[in-house]
Amino acid sequence: MRTPLMAGNWKMYKTVSETRAFFEAFSPLVAKSTHCEIAICPPAVNLAAAVDAVRGTRIAIGAQNLFWEKLGAYTGEISGAMLKAAGCTWVIIGHSERRQYFGETDETVLKRTRAALEAGLQPIVCVGERIEQREAGQTETVLREQFANGIAPLTPDAFERIVIAYEPVWAIGTGKVATPEMAADAHRLLRQQARSTFGTEAALRLRILYGGSVKPDNIRGLMAQTEIDGALVGGASLDPVGFASIVNF
Ligand code: PEP
What we know:
The chain is an alpha/beta fold. Helix content is about 45%, strand content about 15%. An eight-stranded parallel barrel has the order 1-2-3-4-5-6-7-8, surrounded by five helices. The chain is globular and about 45 Å long.
């Protein structure tokens, strides 16, 4: 039995005071939500405030990225050890916005994932096809490649500690959600990849989240698919009431 994970990706939204206000409203709404794990990934400058705000709750805090080196002259970067020391549990890796705007590749995804694990963080590794790739019938090839290059080289022990987020790029922030069946098909393909690389047991334990325009009114249909083990939520995670109703689907 895989425990669902509901994770919010705040992207570049909210200040420290807005972060505190969010948790004041959100925490009581999910205080009894023991059916799933809950994580919020705010911008890095808000991590301390977020960690402070969730103390004593079941809500975990994650970062949106990390650098693979442990320390050094890397202006603007943040290491896994720094995130861990700040109180993070999770870290998103390879989000499509990082792939699109900041040159993230499957190879750098792999480096960041290894660094995250070494620092004791749990990576949420994002994969997903762009619209032109789906329209050209390349979804399967793209997912196979992203898995083969970004995830398959992990050791079996490392693989046990990651979560994969399937996020079709055309569904992120667009309001165009993949149908539950489309998402489940992609999840099945990823689980097959996991099975052939890491074995049946590891594949069955792997949590695969869906991400892409998840909202309070579509989460139930998605979570009705046994293949979908939770959600990575962008826009709809900014509103405490809306995200709480996603968590409490
Ligand atoms: C995301 O940022 O990972 C995401 C899925 O965004 P949205 O829910 O806004 O589509």
